[in-house]
Structures are given as structure tokens and as C-alpha cells.
Amino acid sequence: MTHLYDMIEPNVIGEELLRGCVDEQGPEGEAGRLAKEEGLAFAEVKQLRLDFKNILRIENLWQFHSLQRLQLDNNIIEDISGLDSLAQLEWLDLSFNNIEVIAGLDKLVSLRDLTLAHNRIRQVEHLDSLRQLQVLSLSSNLLEELGNVEYLRQFKHLQSLALKGNPFASNEHYEHCVIAYIPSLHYLDFRMILDAERHAARAVFQEALEELEMNERDLAWRQAEREAQHQQMERSKAAYVDGLQGSILYESLFTEDMDAERLSRLPGVQNMLDKFKEQCVVCCEHLTKVGLEESAKRQQELVQFTRAHEEACVANQELSVQRVVEFEALKQNAVGDLAGGIREEVGGALHHDLMRLEMQLVEQLDEITKDFERNYSDMVEGFLEQVQSQYPSQMHPTGLR
Prior knowledge:
10 helices, flat
């Protein structure tokens, strides 16, 4: 994208530029005067306009933790970067720049409105983490393949999409393709989609959509299966029983053991090993069951500890606030020559009471913590005793009990 001001030396997003923009775009009137005198903290800024500044590179925005709207259009930006700290950003305009590749947006998980119109983008990519995206403009870029549309199907909240001005928009099936493949859309190229258009678009791509939807269901099922396995693995790790599923433990006993391989060929040994494997699997299943049960008990103990800790703090704080309120009431009612003495006396009593409450809280929390540590330690020791008692009693490779 070539602008008339490209001949000007690129501008840098520095302290001077940022302070000038923040002051210019800040509150007006008396509030604005005070803000300029005191200096509005960058961390408090919600909106920032940096358009028409001849900016080449995005940088030095790390202090704007609360920023929700950022305008960077009509610059000469070539690469999207420097935005990782803007986790609260909901609205971003990068239109009319020189961007060729979509990147650097992974951390903007709160983004709802993204404008990348009038750039040099050839591929829709690297937007996967923007699950809240509702409005997207990619008009007037260099997108040639309608396959880019299928990528946008993953954004279930996407309601408005602008793609006009791209090479693929001249395809006779362009509108039908976009409407059919992205059913969440309400607006395409700033025009409302009618129900009749949806039905017509679905009819054109019926066969391809049915195959795609079947693949998506299969993928979702496999993803859910992997997620369930991962959660089970994490629960097993937390319960200290990971590696005990199925015959994993038994197999690990003979990994790279050449002697065991040779011994298994002797008469009667393989039968003995098969029985040992069955016992090992049964024992591991039992230990896994016990381990998960004990882990649930420990988790419940942790929940009770956290609740008791919070309740003690809240109760103590309420008593402290009540004492302060009483002090304020006495201070307000004190009049005449004795007022100063009364305030001093009551203030001393307040200080004493607050210190006493603080000491009570420290002692109470210490007692709660010691009870938790004792109970938790007893649970762990009890579990270990069960584990140690199970192995010799339930399986033995030679005794075959």
C-alpha cells in the first residue's frame, strides 16, 4: 500500500508520541486540564488512536494493560507485532497498512472486532486463538482462494465479515460459498443475509457441506477423547498413580530385559508370566482406584482448608470494620473542650482492639494451617501404607497367590 506520506521518515511509537496522543484524546474541560497536569497513567487508558502517524513498527505499548480499543490504520506497518501485552483489547483497526502476513495476534484472546482491510494479505491464518471474534474485515486484500473461507468456519461467534475487493470475490459462487460455509454470519460485506440466501447457498454446496460436517463431528469426537484421556492422566498424576493403567507397569518390568525374553521360552514359564501379568493388572487397577479415591479426599480437605481460611479472614475483617465504625461515631459525637481527650482515648482503645483482632486472626490461621497439614499428612501416609501392603499380598511372580 503506497501512501503520499511514505516519503516521510517513518515515525516511532515513543514516549513523546504516546503522551501527546493520550493527552489529546483524554477528557475535556476541567477533567482534561487536571489529567494533563497530573499525567494520565498509560495503564489506565482504555482507547488509543495512532492513525495517520506514518508508523512502521508497533512497539512500546506494553504499559497499556487496560487498553480495549486501538486504532492503527493508515500507517505503513508491515508486520503485526508488539501487541502481546494487550490482553484486554477488544477492538483493533490495522486497515490501510502494508501488512502481508497475519501474525502476532495470538495473545489477543478478548478481541471481538478486527479490521485488516486494504493490506497485502494473501492467506487467512494465525487467528485460531481469537475465539471471541465477532466482526472481521479483510476487504481489499490479495486473497485468491475460496478455501480461505473454510478456515473462518471455526469462529462460532463471527457475525459480520467483509471480503469484497479480494480477487476471489469475483468468483460467481463467492457469496454462496461464504454464506454456506460460515452459518453464524448475519452480515456479509455490510449487507444483511436473508434466509432465502441461506437456503440457496446451502443447496449449492449441500454435498460438500455434509462431508465437511461429518469430518468435523469425527474430529470433535477424537478431540473430546484426547481431552478425556488427558484429564484422566492429570488426575492420575495428582493421585500419584500415573503409569499404573492396564499392563503398563508389567511391560515396564521387562523392557530391554533380554534374559526375560530367553526365560519365557522355557517350558511352563510363559504360562507363569501370563498369570503374573493378570495379577499385576488386577493389583494396578485396585491401586489406581484407591489412589483416585484418596486424591479426592485430599482435594476435599484442601477445599475445606481454603474455606476455613477465607471465613476466618472475613469474620475478622467484619469485626475490625465494626470497631472502626463505632470509633467514627464516637468521634463525631464528641463536642466541647473534652472532645480532644475523648478522641485520643477512644483512638488508643481502637488501636488496641485492632491489634488484638489481628493477633487473634494470626493464631486462628496458624491453628487452621496446622490442622490441615496434620490431616493431609495422615491421608498421604495412610495411602502409602495401603500401597505397600497391596504389592506383597496380591501378587508375587513366583508364589502366584
